[in-house]
Design goal:
By secondary structure, the chain is an alpha+beta fold. The protein has helices spanning 3-25, 75-84, 107-144, 150-183; strands spanning 41-44, 47-50, 55-61, 64-69, 92-93, 98-101. It has a 4-stranded antiparallel beta sheet, with helices on one face. Strand 5 and strand 6 form a beta hairpin.
Length: 185
């Protein structure tokens, strides 16, 4: 009777976890990761186009990203967009490809990035709390409509809490992994 509510809750929670992982990959940990530049869009013949659709992006070394545009005429445009982004890295190009050297992070910067990661994970927890509230409201609505007995409502609310606890634990684990990644030298 209340299972569809639980299933819908799980689906929304999975999306929340996925969004959290996506956001945390944008935080650079001193290691070159192609995901760091995937959100950058380039003006390609008047059309804003994601970088990965106009160039190949690779990480040949731990601290270097190489971007090789398929059309060399847009290399300056790519360079300009990278400088405008919040990466904080100065690109260098040799006319054929762009190199992004990632400097070793300072201790201060690592602590700062850890705080950003905590803030992002806290936003995910707020989303999870909102989803919990909505699911419990839906269950109470079923009880008011007399399609769910009081005992079943309590069972359903406990089930919702179990699911919520599981996903809150996931958020904590994901945050811990990101903090460890940021703080390693």
């Amino acid at each position: 009777m209340y299972e569809p509510i639980i299933n819908e809750l799980e689906n929304k929670l999975k999306k929340t976890i996925s969004a959290l992982k996506d956001e945390l990959t944008q935080i650079r940990a001193g290691r070159a990761n192609p995901a760091l530049v995937e959100k950058i869009t380039v003006d390609y013949y008047g059309v804003p186009t994601p970088l990965q659709q106009v160039a190949s992006i690779s990480a040949p070394e731990a601290r270097l990203l190489v971007i090789q545009p398929w059309d060399a005429s847009i290399i300056k445009e790519i360079e300009k967009e990278i400088q405008k982004s919040d990466l904080g890295i100065t690109p260098s190009n040799d006319g054929k490809l762009i190199r992004l050297p990632f400097p070793v992070l300072t201790e201060e910067r690592r602590v700062e990035l850890t705080k950003v990661a905590k803030k992002i994970s806290e936003n995910s927890k707020v989303s999870i709390r909102n989803l919990r509230r909505d699911a419990i409201d839906d269950i109470k609505k079923l009880e008011k409509e007399k399609s769910l007995p009081e005992d079943d409502r309590k069972v359903a609310e406990n089930k919702v809490q179990e699911v919520i606890d599981k996903y809150n634990k996931m958020v904590e684990e994901i945050l811990k992994a990101k903090e460890d990644e940021l703080m390693e030298l």
